[in-house]
TrEMBL record:
GO MF annotation list: oxidoreductase activity
Provenance organism: Loigolactobacillus bifermentans DSM 20003
PROSITE patterns: ALDOKETO_REDUCTASE_2
InterPro entries, per database record: AKR, AKR_Detox_Biosynth, Aldo/ket_reductase_CS, NAD(P)_OxRdtase_dom_sf, NADP_OxRdtase_dom
Gene3D superfamilies: NADP-dependent oxidoreductase domain (3.20.20.100)
Keywords associated with the record: Oxidoreductase
Gene Ontology CC annotation, any one: cytosol
Domain NADP-dependent oxidoreductase: start-end pairs: 24-310
UniProt protein name: NADP-dependent oxidoreductase domain-containing protein
UniProt keyword Acyltransferase present: no
Pfam families listed in its UniProt record: Aldo_ket_red
Length: 317
């Protein structure tokens, strides 16, 4: 468990064999410049979200080539020129090949070029965490990771990550012990990897970052049972009722802390020792600033367990 004084502080977080200095809450930036993925975005909100997050004490920014096909990285690159680079942790990803309709490519030469392109867009000399965004179906995973390790030795990146790899692919990628960090779909309503992935990561000292921590908005508490149709593709009616009930339990805990459901859900991840950094996305400055407040919510052991139990049905989903 992490107690308040530690949570508020910038911490040394282990990323494989290296460490980064960050708070346990970062910023997800797929809505910063991610015009190809979401409608009704404007770049000004993107600049404002990144600035607001950094001004509120956020250190880690999670981006990717595919968020706006470079636009998210460009916006972040422009913003960070006015900040102390050494105090910011930049995580980015690549695998989609711009020369080939964004088809997934993990070939060593492609990944090396992708890092160089990202460095230019980010206007920086190094990237703190570089993930292979998705596995391709041809490159041996350890060869892909070895290519990134060469760039790590050259100082262009500081930690090697993989994302969206199956547990078997993670093991293949890590044959030579070169994987520092894994980013995968995980949240309180999608918990299967607690059993299938986390034991291996823990045993091999690989850090874990969950994406979709708010289940794309479902876990913000803004939906009621009447919204079931919006979620019918992903959850049965019974599962949806369980989620709404679990969020009602979370609301009671949130009220005790004068916090919102969103902040309390984020605090649960921050408290979880299996999670390195939480990276909720934000569409605007208000969301970004509100989410930072999760660092001020200190859950008791009992509250942590109560939320864990309320969402226990999703350990197999
Ligand atoms: N490695 C990968 O393959 C991968 C895949 C997906 C995402 N990611 C990363 O993970 C990050 C997080 O995922 P995500 O952003 O897609 O999903 P998320 O964090 O689960 O949900 C973020 C969304 O929740 C809503 N929200 C956020 N804060 C809120 C608040 N305070 N009050 C009310 N609503 C709020 C916003 O949606 P509205 O716009 O609807 O308000 C926001 O865009 C991404 O930004 C990206 O950096 C990585």
């Amino acid at each position: 468990m992490i107690f308040k004084e530690e949570k508020m502080m910038v911490q040394e977080i282990k990323i494989g064999k290296s460490t980064v200095q960050t708070t346990k809450l970062g910023l997800g930036t797929n809505k910063v410049g991610g015009h190809n993925l979401f409608q009704n975005l404007n770049d000004q909100d993107g600049y404002d979200v990144v600035r607001k997050a950094l001004d509120s004490g956020i250190k880690l920014l999670d981006t990717a080539y595919i968020y706006g096909e470079g636009r998210s990285e460009e916006i972040i690159g422009e913003v960070i020129q006015n900040y102390d680079r050494s105090k910011i942790v930049i995580a980015t990803k690549a695998a989609q090949d711009p020369q080939n309709n964004n088809q997934i490519n993990n070939e060593p030469a492609f990944l090396k070029q992708a890092v160089k392109d990202a460095l230019k867009r980010l206007q920086t000399a190094y990237i703190d965490i570089f993930y292979i965004h998705f596995p391709d179906n041809k490159t041996p995973k350890n060869e892909a990771v070895a290519a990134l390790n060469e760039l790590k030795q050259a100082g262009l990146i500081r930690a090697v990550g993989v994302s969206n790899f199956t547990p078997e692919q993670i093991k293949e990628a890590n044959i030579d012990g070169l994987v520092d960090i894994v980013e995968d779909h995980y949240n309180l309503v999608h918990r299967q990897i607690e059993k299938t992935e986390w034991p291996y990561l823990k045993q091999n000292k690989i850090a874990f970052v969950p994406y979709f921590p708010l289940a794309s908005g479902l876990l913000t508490g803004r939906y009621t049972l009447n919204d079931y149709e919006k979620f019918a593709d992903d959850y049965s009616k019974v599962e949806f009722e369980t989620i709404i009930n679990a969020l009602a339990i979370t609301q009671k805990i949130a009220d005790r802390h004068s916090a919102t459901v969103t902040q309390t859900i984020l605090a649960w991840y921050i408290t979880n020792p299996n999670i390195a950094v939480v990276i909720p996305g934000a569409r605007n400055q208000q969301q970004a600033a509100g989410n930072v407040e999760a660092l001020n919510v200190t859950l008791s052991e009992a509250e942590f367990q109560q939320i864990d139990k309320a969402f226990a049905d999703f350990k197999n989903k």
